[in-house]
Amino acid sequence: MSSDKKHIRLSLRDQKFLDKALRIVNDHLGKESFGIEELSQELGLSRSQLHRRLQKITGLSAALFIRSVRLKKAVELLLEGDLPVSDVAYRTGFSSPSYFNKCFHEQYGFPPGDIHKQKTSEIDQRTFFIPEALSDSKAGYIKTSKKRKIYFYLFVFMAIIIFTIIYFLSGNRFGKIQIHDKSVAVLPFKNFSDKQENQYIADGMMEAIISNISKIGDLKVISRTSMEQYRESPKSVRQIGSELKVNYLLEGSIFQDEENIRITVQLIDIKSDEYIWSDNYDFELRDIFSVQSQIAERIATILQTKITSEEMSRLQQKPTSSPEAYDIYQRAFYYYINYLQQRLETDYTMALTLFRMAINEDTTFADAYVRLADLYWIRNYRGEFHSNTFMDTVYLLCRKGLRFDPRSSDAHRLLGQYFFETGKREQGITELKTAISLNRNNASAYDVLGFYYNWSGQWETGIPAIFTSIQLDPYSVLLPLRYCYLARGYLDILDFEKTFYYSQKAIELSEGSRPSLGLAYWINAHTHLMCGKGEEALEAAGKLADINEIGALRIQAEVYCHLFRDFEKSIDLYQELTRRDSAHYNYRHRYAYALWEAGDYDSAKAMFETQIRTFERELELGRVERNDPHYNLAGIFAFLKDYDKAFDHLKKHHFTSGLEIYAERDPLFRDIRDNPEFKRIIQDAIDEKELIRASIERKISEDFGL
Question: Mean pLDDT over residues 56-78, rounded?
């Protein structure tokens, strides 16, 4: 930890040792090969003895002690102004100017070439504290008589009492940090190791610290994915804090030398733009979990955060007893994050292979099971959607992970997804709530919970949950998708203004993200269709066609069939749709209607009967796919004049996607459109949505200031 340079009173033995160590390092200052081994040999000590002596006297590891002496000499040479930076680097024993620049910047916060722009006092404050050896005369000063010691301790005792009285009586708390709302973001850690391939260790440390402090319910913590954009950002601390809407930033770096690691962390108060805490941690790889916990606990202490006994227990829990398994897991996580962001096959394969290797190294490693389950879900969701074994692999992996860590938030999140998608909706919601109770900063859990609440028609809970996920992860690669979720939610409650607003935001942010862009264009086209605006729907479908031809064809066919009543054109489009994607089925009752109107009654009736069986099977499976089976069955039965079944399904349908508005012009309902019962069902749905919109507007205004 950096400190102001000062004299401390050392024993004569420690003074002589330090003086000799400083002289030896300075004598070999220009030798790049001079390191811990050489210093320990010249001092006649083992490496561990050397480390303990220097740690006791200076608070520095042996490696950092040598580097600090080199940097201090470098500052002197740079201030003289006669040598270029590269020469200073080699004269002070650094292997290269680039490595020198890294070390210098880590220590002083600016590149060596900018040294003349700094104040000398500020440079001194950022120099690692190396106690200066005292002269023999000063050494004698340490030999204080017992009487003087007694007076000294009495003086210190009285000073403490007086200061304490003043502290509590005064409104001004001397030296007390002003704590703002406890919101924290962790910037990507810098890797100052010689090997750039060690970046995964820096990323792993960043992830672990975020994960640990996220377990503290009293803290709001920004998700990892939102922080990647600041990896090489020139933005100021205030800019970053303003964009993330947080009050504190943690920045850090790592330096690894074989098995020894040094981590430097600094906590910044954004409002004052000042460091309120900084520290260095020197440790061996096997002690990494202890250091991760210490850093999280220290941040909580500095921010005066309440930590429950349960949270403390989770902070101190080691994810694995195997350093080898953890190292493999960190490598896997690096590729896992890359896959989330870019969906590259090579990243998927590496992540999959390495997660499996981590499990082979430690079969009780819960996090590895859970990340493997997450990876499997992302990759195989669509492919297994209509399978009887849909996502069973995810279920088994999560159960195994929870066996070894019952408090895994992401395992409960994934189980929530599994249960909800397989028809066990209440169980799914319960698992997602458990995930959030274990980690109130789990943006993905809020995201999924909001998504499923919306799909279940519980928009008053779902839409705020999605806003929470955006607040916790404001610059995630998933942000465009979350805007789409909001647009879809507002479409469901018939707030078309906000539907178009959030779909447009998704479009603006979706460059390079075809799934989000396609969904946003589809929402726009579908909303225009629901409102009966054929030309606008076709325009949006035209943009969708570049990304999702199948989705675009369906919108176009329905516009020509239902709004323009151009059955010949719509049949051509439905035929093309069927040719391109024979597995796509949820539009075929619309295709059947076009055939019927064109006079092909046999083909139309056969297609209607197939659709009835398909949608009834969908209801049996309990799938959540938004094919609106009750609405579609109601339309088919109404058109086939089986009105009892039509009304039975219509009463069971929970209206979404603007279908209340569309139903009044949907040609499948033309024979019952004037039926009082039909009108009542539709009007009740519209009235209910008006009340829901008012309730959500109040909640969003109160909780998010929007």
Answer: 83
Highest mean pLDDT among 505-514, 556-565, 575-584, 650-659: 556-565
Q: Which of 531, 485, 557, 554 is nearest to 658 (CA)?
A: 531
Dihedral of alpha carbons 145, 150, 156, 162, sign: negative
Q: Give the three-class secondary structure for 254.
A: strand
- Residues 278 and 253 sit within 8 Å (Cβ to Cβ): no
Q: How many Å apart are CA 57 and CA 75, to the nearest integer?
A: 23
Mean pLDDT of 120-143: 45
Q: At what angle do helices 62-80 and 97-108 cross, to 10 degrees?
A: 100
Output the CATH code of domain 183-318.
3.40.50.10610
Query: What crossing angle do the helices spanning 288-302 and 323-342 adopt, rounded to 10°?
Result: 60
Structure tokens at 434: 């458990």
* H/E element, 606: helix 601-621
Q: Which DSSP helix (H) or strand (E) runs through 594?
A: helix 588-597
* 272 and 207 Cβ atoms separated by less than 8 Å: no
pLDDT greater than 80 at residue 622:
no
Looking at residue 79, its amino acid is: L
Cα angle vertex 549, ends 548, 553, to 5°? 125
Give φ, ψ of 282 to 5 degrees.
-110, 125
Measured distance CA(10)–CA(20) in Å, rounded:
14
Residue 136 CB neighbour total at 10 angstroms: 8
CATH number of 12-138: 1.10.10.60
pLDDT in tens, 254-290: 888 777 888 989 999 998 888 888 888 888 888 889 9
pLDDT of 419-435, one tens digit each?
988 888 889 999 999 99
What three-state secondary structure class fits 183? strand
- Taking the CA atoms of residue 101, residue 103, residue 107 and residue 109 in that order, the dihedral angle to the nearest 10 degrees is 30
What is the DSSP secondary structure assignment for residue 513, as one 8-state letter?
A: -
Q: How far apart are CA 159 and CA 506, in angstroms?
A: 62
pLDDT in tens, 446-496: 999 999 899 888 999 999 999 999 999 998 888 999 999 999 999 999 999
Q: Are 657 and 626 in contact (CB under 8 A)?
A: yes
Closest CA to 329 of 369, 289, 378: 369
Report the C-alpha gap between 643 and 671 in whole angstroms: 9
- Domain parsing of the chain, residue ranges: 12-138, 183-318
Cβ atoms of residues 26 and 73 within 8 Å: yes
Q: Which of 126, 127, 263 is nearest to 186 (CA)?
A: 263
pLDDT score of 403: 96
- Give yes or no for residue 147 having a pLDDT over 70: no
Q: Residue 531 — φ and ψ, nearest 5°? A: -85, 0
CB-count burial class (<10 Å; 0-12, 13-18, 19+) for 351: buried
Query: pTM for this one?
Result: 0.68
pLDDT-based confidence at residue 17 (cuts at 50, 70, 90): confident
